[in-house]
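During the no-cost extension, the postdoctoral fellow (Dr. R.K.) reprocessed legacy sequence entries with the updated structure-token encoder. One reprocessed record is reproduced below for audit purposes.
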Amino acid sequence: NETSTGCRRALSLQIQRNGFTPGDYIAHKDDCVDCVYFLVRGHVKIKINGNLIGILGKGDTFGEKWWPTTVTGKANADIQAMTYVEIETLTHDSLREIFIKFPDYWEVWEKNWK
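Re-encoded structure tokens follow.
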């Protein structure tokens, strides 16, 4: 495993789980995005101007990827639940705190997001 037990424990305390039902919007285009979304269960569709551009499923991620040198942004698409969905979120502030406490985790994060 690439992270320490302490880092994994700190991450687990910061991650929040949310549930959505079919048809619920998780994010609308131009919403402020201040977290990374991890799709745990279900499927979501990505739409721009009403046009379907993709479908995500278990194990996929979306949202602002967050780099310490980048200003957080806005959603560039609508994200809508197609099925019952469980999503874990990690806010940028929480992620920044993890990187401060566990600087070695930055390398793991950067490698997994490339």
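The chain has three helices and eight strands. The helical segments are 5-14, 92-101, 105-113. The remaining legacy entries will be reprocessed before the final report is submitted.
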